[in-house]
Amino acid sequence: MRVPLPALLCCSAASLLLLLLLRWRRRRGLWRKVKEARQRQERSLVQMEMAVRCFREQHPSVNMISILSLPLPELSKKLRDGSLPPEHVFYAYVGKALQIATETNCITEYLQESETQLRKAKLTGKLGLLYGVPVSIKDSINCQGHDSTLGFIKNLNKPAAEDSVVVQVLRRQGAIPFVKTNVPQSLISKKGIICAVLGQKAVVTGVGPMAKDVESLALCMRALLCEDMFSLDSTVPPLPFNEEVYSSTQPLRIGYYETDFFTMPSPAMRRAVRETKQLLEDAGHTLVPFELMNVDYVIFNFCVGGMFADGGASFLKKFKGELEKSNMGLLFWLVKSPNWLKTVLSWIAKPFVPRFSDLVRNMRANTVDEVWSLHHEIEEFCHQFIAQWKKLNLDVMLCPMLGPALGIGYPGKLSVAVSYTMLYNALDFPAGVVPVTMVTDEDEEELKGYQGYFQDWWDRTLAKAFRGSVGLPVAVQCVALPWQEELCLRFMKEVETLVLKKNRLV
10 Å Cβ neighbour count for 502? Predict the structure, then answer.
């Protein structure tokens, strides 16, 4: 029996129309959820505004600017000795957070129960190291009763059943988590913290505080490395903060490099390392050149290969049912492509765009044996890196940090530019960042000759991203060996102190 052509066409058109209708309904449902989330966010900002306005009306004489200018150690001391009321500090920070949120859209949610915690803290009389200190929490870190979305619609309306270990310890130390803040979509992490690809062990992320100065970071680490942390999470070694290492004044033997020969540093990045090296040498420390090798192999084989070891299936699963992002279209297409096509594309692209070729090649699905071999390779690389470090008898390492901050829209296009920090994710070394200078007119002029090491699309895009940055801060990266966070902080403190001294003399 033959079906007439017009009937076939009608059936095909009807099927297509049905598919389009179903897709439209699904997208409309997704946008409804997004709208509801935005409304919740707006309500949070209104709640913050009302809380701050009410406080200011009742306490018009409180100098919030002076409160906000206090370094964390001084702020904590004043809170603990009673010379600064916790509610004054709390509403000063809520007001500042509200101002920043209106400028940058950084806050996802106001934790209104923080006001209750503030009142209870005054009644209990327990004075932890962070008593009364307001802290912001990244969206990926679980807070009881609140979503941890990672920017995914599917994670909306799924409040966490309990606080993550980090939040529990912060609360026990008297800190007051009061807002959750945005993170990159699909961020990877630790216990009680939502991650994108469960079980991925090749490249680890670290959970670490951000603060205005190094002493504040040290205080935060003292608070976190406590009995509560070790009892709540038995996978954390019971090693309290080593004050002797942090407070040492012994001269350091410091390795350094100006480039990783993968991402060409901007003129400001290179200058930041050179000037910091000189300051450290003038202060009596020994600086030793350190030669990096095979960073391109680390980025593509370890980082890309590790995160996409299943061919990107887990990555795609996270985005299934989400609103598609146009700037990720090529990535999604590559991930969905079969292994044979990725191999062919890699082979064709190799002579013309070698980095794109390596990227595609390492997005192929691996066998279990290949994944184990990858993990073994990473271990061997780590041992070789440490051997090179110890052969030079180094204490710490001074490295460039990608900077200045890239303009809106550029970070999503420049994932390969994270090589300076991603290296230490692969090695799992403690690392910290310290601002040391700002982009100058001379840096901007020199940037006109920036071409990059590969002169491909990524290098051209990075050159554009660096432009127009005069006056923006530029940092260096300070690195130590595993389990030597206190030494890393001590090195960061040394850099910070020398830079501040230099700036006072200028």
Answer: 16
Q: How many domains does the chain have?
A: 3
Residues 330 and 420 in one domain: no
CATH assignment of the domain containing 453:
3.90.1300.10
150 domain-assigned: yes
Residues 6+ apart with CB under 8 A from 460: 452
Q: What integer pLDDT is reported at residue 441 of this predicted model?
A: 96
For 142, phi then psi, to 5°, come to -65, 130
DSSP structure class, residue 215: H
CB atoms within 10 A of CB 62: 17
Confidence band of 53 (pLDDT split at 50, 70, 90): very high
Which residues lie below 8 Å from residue 135, measured CB to CB, with a gap of 6+? Answer: 170, 175, 176, 177, 178
Question: Which residues touch 482 (CB under 8 Å, ≥6 apart)?
Answer: 428, 429, 430
Cβ within 8 Å of residue 334, ≥6 positions away: 312, 342, 345, 360, 363
Each residue's pLDDT tens digit, 104-121:
888 999 999 998 988 887
Residue type, 69: S
Q: DSSP assignment, residue 160?
A: B
Q: Which residues pair with 110 in a beta bridge?
A: 179
Cis-peptide, bond into residue 404, ω within 30° of zero: yes
Q: Which two tokens stand for residue 123?
A: 């009644």
DSSP state of 180: E
The token pair at 163 is 């606080």
The number of CA neighbours under 13 Å toward the Cβ of 66 is 6
Backbone torsions φ then ψ of 438, nearest 5 degrees: -135, 155
For 193, list phi and psi in degrees, rounded to 5: -130, 125
Sheet holding 286-289, edge to edge: 286-289, 253-256, 396-400, 473-479, 431-438
CA separation for the pair 94, 110 (Å, rounded): 9
Provide the domain limits for residue 144. 26-241
3-state secondary structure of 82: coil
Query: DSSP letter at 298?
Result: I
Dist CA 102 CA 430 (whole Å): 33
Tokens of 67: 């409160």
Q: Cα-flanking dihedrals φ and ψ of residue 453, to 5°? A: -80, -25
Q: Which helix (H) or strand (E) holds 135?
A: strand 134-138
- Judge whether 3 lies within some domain: no
Q: Are residues 286 and 325 in the same domain?
A: no
Lowest model confidence (mean pLDDT) among 317-326, 391-400, 414-423, 442-451: 317-326
CA 353 to chain centre: 28
